[in-house]
Every structure is written in C-alpha cells, then in structure tokens.
Hints:
By secondary structure, the protein is an alpha+beta fold. The protein has helices at 14-22, 53-70, 95-99, 104-121, 134-156, 167-176; strands spanning 4-8, 29-36, 45-52, 75-82, 85-92, 127-131, 160-161, 183-188, 195-200.
Amino acid sequence: MEKYKFQAKNEKGLLEKALEELNVKEEDVITKLYEEKGGLFSGKKYTIELVKLSDVAEVGKDILKELLNSLNIIANIETKIRDGKIKYEIFSKNNSVLIGKKGHILDSIQTYVRQAIYNAIDLYVNITIDVENYKEKQNYFLEKKVKKIAREVTLSKVEVKLDPMNSYERKIVHEALQGFKYIKTESEGEEPNRCVVVKYCEKSEEEE
C-alpha cells in the first residue's frame, strides 16, 4: 500500500494540490498534516501524507481474512466505502460465535482490525465491522428506545440515566436525539461504566 507525501512552505493549498495531483476527491483519502522545523538556513515546511481509502480497505480486508482463518471460520466479506468510512460485512455460518454476548466479540474484532490498520499506516481510519446487519439492527432498536425515552423526558422534565454503553453506542444516542427541541444528552462516568444522561433543557439551542 502506497503512502503519498507532499511538501510545501505554506499550508494553504497543500491539500488541494495533493488531491489534484493524485486525481482523487478528499473523501477518497485519509490525510495527515504536520509541520517540520527547518534547519539553520531553511524555514519550516508542511508535509501532508495521503493514503487512498480503497487501498486501506484492501489491507483491512486481508487483516480480517487472516483473523477469521486463525479462528477456523469460513466467511465471505463485503467491503463498502462511503463518506470517508470503510464498512466490512461478514457472512458466515458462525454468526453467534463472531457476534458473542451483546456483540462483545464483534466489538473486539473491530477494535483489533482498526488497530492493525493504524499500525500499518500510522493513520486513524473510521471502520465498522458487522455480521449480517447485526449492528445495524441493534442500532435501529437503540435509536427507537432512546427516542421514546426522550419523549418521556420532554413531558416529565425528569432526566433519565441510561445503562452503561461503549463509545460507539453513546455516539448513536447523541446523534439520534440531536433533533429533539428540548432535550440534551451528556456522557457521564468513567469507562467501562460511562453512560448517557438524557436531560430536559428549558430552551432549545435556537432560542438561546
């Protein structure tokens, strides 16, 4: 997998120049910009590193395949790239093994692959791994549940503390309730007991 580097004395226009030279759009690459101090007779330089998402997706798929093979699990893997994110969908006859209790095994697989990709390219990548839409279904039910709670909080004006969740689930809750006019959400506590509190706020953000 190739990592592309571009340098300039000025940060402005560096990304645009790199994208134009590679003939790609910004959502098709992962970037990392950093500043390098110059020597005694040279000024500082800006360096931008780019990796194509399609290349990263292939590396991630190979890592996932190797992991599944080590577990003696035969599976098909579908890869989707959208909005700067990579999603792997696994299809196998061992769904319960891959998912685990409350999705813990699936979360561990996702963490492993994400870290392995980071170790390979030294860049953070937003990836999701699912098993026959398990997470998608869980997300749907979670959104439905918290929206019901938000409506109840709007009427009662009494805050509700949800059960502890991982960072991915908390993000889903925050995003699901953004559209509620008199509701705000806050994360409280320390891992692994960090949770979301659904609160009533007297004024909406538009009115403040």
